[in-house]
């Protein structure tokens, strides 16, 4: 609910035009671009200085005009508290994506503050060459900006690019620049004007799994008998370099090295209380999976039926149950609250193109309220019939595109429900017989 | 439960006796059902709830389609992807009874909001129906002999391997429900013959209708029942009851059977159904004669019978012959001929002979499938012949014909099993009746106590317990009800009955015989469980191997390959694969993915009637790569799929079945393919360096062994050692020009190749001016190994 209102506010804010406060200066920016996985994770520590006379309550963050594939953005202050982010339109600025960040403590004139900006971009690593044979290594290119893109003047900045391997084919050399092991350091550069762009390119070997979940359907079914069943229908695709030519099982069996661009298996993390886990597809059970209970979670090693090469896809269903006492609570006012993850872990550094979460509520719920951690699209509600169920249960459907690991957050559903309805199904069963 | 029955006894003696006996019958049948159901679940427990082989996969797919799209859409379903490029009208080429049965179960359950997935219904349909089969067998045997024999028969059929082989959980095939329909039809038929009531005859024809909708084996019914009637007429047992029941049954059955799209006009146009029509006519002739007999003198009548009989027989025969020649009545089909001449199929229709279940039965499999029943069923037959009456004539004919057919084809073991169970039930019941006759109440109570003192054991060794309860029930039922057959039986041979009474058997002999019988039954139960567990409960799409430490490894290569095909080939990709029955699981699996809307076109699957098409595929597989490429282009093939068991030692692979492919190809293309080319000079079929060059260079060989020559399986064997055929392959280093390996599963069991497009293997033409001559320092790369052993085309 809180977030819902926040969304409304967002919309109203968008229409209001922001102005760029020229009094703000990026005194120091330390940026790190993490290219070790299939995602581009940029984290920048910005020291903002207020050189003006008025205290400042908010500042702007800008992203390059081509940064349309931004999946996640977050700003923290020096106390690691999340700051409020609002999309913004800026008066007279060039095209680009702007966010208005609300500071918790206003920055007085002459003072400075440090914030940490975290951005996750997807689909920014381009396999080059785009198709390779089974034996080749997978090379990717990253195109970025040498400078920190900002509406303010940047006094000093430094960038570290973290790569997944030492073998770098090529990279742009805007001096000063240095490469050591799998890290390229750009800078320090000084006194960069606002909105400066200078293309950075890194071409390097990246054999980490380029696995995209093209569609994830997550179904959460609540039973007040004490169980919550979760089923995920997952379609995955290897989105790295395409496989060119034949696939040879002989070569594949001989090549036992761990760094290969094909994907043999990956790990999924489930809640520690998960039980009755199943892993199957339209042909039945997939016999190649291992469950390893850890202290805090359950680790599931999933092997698709076949190793995934570039362009190959697969699909499966993963289901499990959790006891409801960990997720379903009763408020003193008599309402029930379900707190669960909108999306859960599929594999490390995952990228989900499309998510559809359905929540199947018990029979006879009323006044359903939903509260999501971030903006999601709510699809029309549906009604479904489960075992011995003649009233039907309402299904809440939510949809969102472009998700990454950082989106694993809880949502809340509040509803009214009468405990007598628990007996509805056994009773109807008796009546029918 | 038994206690409850015995508590009643003080109230009324007659009531309690009848109550106990019906209670025992109920309990035994229930237990038979449960035992039958439970023993069919090995595969589900060991693996998963999964459909097993090709045909079941196809049926399952059709059922899923019907559930999704409705019955009428199913009837009109034209599957353009099967049997490419012909397509298949599914609704008109299947027996819809199976799909309708599971579809309606699914519908009813969903009406009650029991959301069982259609797959689970399909998997458990056959085990559930085995219980129904047991019950209808009970009723049939009860009509034929006595309730006690019926209980025996029901228990036998519940666990006999010959029937389990076709009805384990997951084998979702027509036979699963057809045996029930078969037994039930026979029961209703016997009932109608006994009573002469139109009601039972109509019920029989309805049941026959269900049978027709379920299985092609209905032909067995429509020939056996007329045969029964015919023999009864010959024996001079004509009666109005027979007349009523047969005429009603035949007419209604005929009309009903023609409602099934696949059967259509066959009942009046094919020779297989002519016997029934002939008997129908004969029935009327006899009826008329009987009527005339009342009005004529004896001598007049005699001459009329002789003349009339001869003339009418001649007319009927001529009519059939003429109609056959004129094309109104189709002659017998090839499969039918192969029932009379076992060598027929091998010569004329290799495609049918290639199916392993169409081979003649070995003695071993009789024992394997029936165990002690093989020995006891002649005894039952003897009992029945000794006490012959109208309906027992039927079971005699049933037994004789089923024995013959089971001997001809392994598959027809299935029709023999029920009658063996019935007759063995009669034999056991007769024996025990004899040996327990003078054992009265004392013994009865004794065994009853024994029964409920060990109720927990019941689940484990099912049969002995049931056998015991049967024992009692057979006896007590026999005591209560005077044996029904005698009441209605026509010609009673009381001599035997009476002589039995006078037999004095000592208590020692009695107990020894009883113990021996019980032991036999126990052994039978053990054997049944063992066979079911070891032979009939493995889904052939999942293989399991056991390591030296007893750990189980699952080889899931088939599903791996089909899932790969379904996910990673184009939607309209066409896959060529071999045809023979058991390896067509592959196609089924691929088709199963149609749920995702992404099934692949199959070139040849279980399509055993489209011979020339199969021959073309066989020819492609038997030719060398270049010739095969032409055929594959003509057939518009995108992928080729072979099964190769050389890595894990799987004997059902394509190389082992390859000769059938060659034979079929030779049948249609004798100029290009000759079976003798694939043998060595000594007439052996070998894949090692001694093998015939034609074999070592044909497409099948190359696809199976591509890059296998480099693979070293373990340290003891040389590279390229084929575990299935225990030989080092003969042609090791070769490249494929027109195909490329697209996918090979983890244990190399399924290999998929992609057919290259012309521009992929033809080098682009370089203009003369641009051609560069290679430097003269050319060194031959041929090693000594490579120099030898290439066959030149």
The parts of chain B where pLDDT drops under 50 for at least 5 residues are 1-10, 439-502, 580-601, 603-609
Mean pLDDT of chain A: 86
- Name the overall outline of chain B: globular
* Residue windows where pLDDT falls under 50 for at least 5 positions of chain A: 1-15
What order do the strands of the largest sheet of chain A run in, or round the barrel if closed? 22-21-25-18-17-28-31-30
Overall number of strands of chain B: 11
Give a quick account of the main beta sheet of chain A: strands, pairing sense, barrel closure: 8 strands, mixed
Family (chain A): Belongs to the OST1 family.
Membrane topology (chain A): Single-pass type I membrane protein
Protein name (chain A): Dolichyl-diphosphooligosaccharide--protein glycosyltransferase subunit 1
Signal peptide (chain A): 1-16
Characteristic key phrases:
A: mainly beta; Immunoglobulin-like; 2 domains; seven-stranded mixed β-sheet; 7% helix; disordered N terminus; B: 793 residues; mainly alpha; Rossmann fold; 61% helix; membrane (chain A)
